[in-house]
């Protein structure tokens, strides 16, 4: 047990350091940017495009905040405006696919998948889902009734306060990461030492095969589904290294997870908006499943063609 604690703590600290070097500077920069004219400028650029996906111009505010900051910022902005139920549902769907874009995508890229691939998949899913919902759903025209949503504190004034707020937010972001990641790494080490990971891999092997990956990628998949991309990245990195997950399987798992991760928290967080949350989860899961299966099919087909050409050349 002592060896398990020692190895788990060591892996947790190493992972916190690796991810902290990504999270701290991005959080600092993004936190400072929200108090500058840059975010309003981005929102002004996006507003004219909102009508194409069935949203009013004001919808640009929560969508930009959710992508640049996090879901809580996006939800806080939604309740500041009068939106219809349909608009709120479309925004919730888009924010489910694409939120905290810079931090989550940068951290997920540490696992080995290119940053631009993660960003492209998330933004594409958000836009496509919004277009489809707008075209298919003709109802939801009544104004949304919001529940209890926590309010933000007073904004800092002056560059000194803004800089301090950025440093404070970035620091506590890394502390929060450590509080979550280190215990998870210790638990993971215990599961590994007691062969529970082998049992878990066998249990979810049918699902991993369904999306075209080997069962040794199961821990990476479970980590992302339960605790999300940012906090689950530590487990993903460790699992990928120790379970010898292939580059192909890592890409497929991450493609699935960028569409469907932290399924409990990211679903329940929308309850205060007064919209049905089960459709959010179902749409995310089905979209992730179909997208991953398509990518797996194309990847396998290219591999077979490449192997055929190699065999032909060898003969």
Radius of gyration from the alpha-carbon trace, in angstroms: 21 Å
Number of strands: 0
Chain-averaged pLDDT: 80
Number of separate helices? 13
| Straight-line N-to-C gap | 55 Å
Oligomer: single chain
Q: Could you name the ranges where pLDDT drops below 50 across 5 or more consecutive residues? A: none
* Relative helix content: over 70%
Envelope shape = globular
Portion of residues in beta strands equals under 5%
Query: Mind describing the biggest β-sheet?
Result: none
Helix/sheet category: mainly alpha
What series of H and E elements makes up the topology? HHHHHHHHHHHHH
Number of domains: 1
Give a short summary of the structure.
Helix content is 73%, strand content 0%. The chain has 315 residues and is mainly α.
Overview features:
315 residues; mainly alpha; 13 helices; 73% helix
Please explain how this structure is put together.
With about 325 residues, this protein is an all-alpha fold. The model has no long low-confidence stretch (mean pLDDT about 80). Helix 8 packs across helix 10. The protein has 13 helices and no strands. The N and C termini lie far apart (about 55 Å). The protein has one domain (about 1-315). The chain is globular, with a radius of gyration of 21 Å. Helix content is about 75%, strand content about 0%. The longest helix is centred in the C-terminal third of the chain and has 37 residues, at about 280-315.
């Amino acid at each position: 047990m002592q060896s398990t604690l020692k190895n788990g703590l060591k892996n947790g600290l190493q992972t916190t350091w690796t991810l902290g070097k990504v999270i701290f500077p991005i959080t600092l920069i993004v936190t400072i940017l929200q108090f500058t004219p840059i975010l309003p400028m981005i929102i002004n650029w996006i507003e004219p495009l909102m009508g194409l996906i069935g949203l009013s111009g004001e919808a640009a505010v929560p969508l930009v905040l959710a992508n640049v900051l996090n879901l809580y910022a996006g939800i806080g902005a939604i309740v500041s405006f009068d939106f219809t139920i349909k608009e709120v549902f479309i925004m919730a769907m888009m924010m489910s696919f694409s939120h905290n874009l810079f931090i989550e995508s940068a951290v997920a890229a540490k696992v080995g998948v290119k940053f631009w691939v993660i960003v492209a998949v998330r933004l594409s899913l958000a836009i496509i889902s919004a277009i489809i919902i707008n075209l298919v759903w003709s109802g939801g025209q009544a104004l949304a009734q919001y529940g209890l949503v926590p309010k933000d504190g007073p904004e800092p004034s002056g560059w000194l306060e803004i800089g301090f707020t950025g440093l404070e937010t970035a620091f506590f972001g890394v502390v929060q990461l450590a509080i979550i990641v280190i215990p998870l790494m210790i638990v993971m080490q215990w599961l590994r030492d007691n062969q529970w990971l082998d049992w878990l891999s066998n249990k979810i092997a049918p699902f991993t095969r369904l999306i075209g990956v080997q069962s040794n990628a199961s821990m990476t998949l479970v980590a992302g589904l339960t605790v999300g991309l940012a906090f689950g990245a530590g487990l993903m990195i460790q699992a990928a290294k120790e379970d010898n997950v292939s580059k192909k399987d890592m890409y497929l798992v991450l493609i699935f997870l960028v569409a469907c991760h932290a399924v409990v928290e990211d679903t329940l967080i929308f309850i205060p908006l007064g919209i049905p949350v089960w459709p959010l989860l179902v749409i995310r899961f089905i979209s992730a499943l179909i997208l991953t299966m398509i990518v797996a099919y194309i990847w396998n087909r290219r591999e077979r063609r490449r192997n055929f050409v190699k065999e032909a050349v060898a003969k």
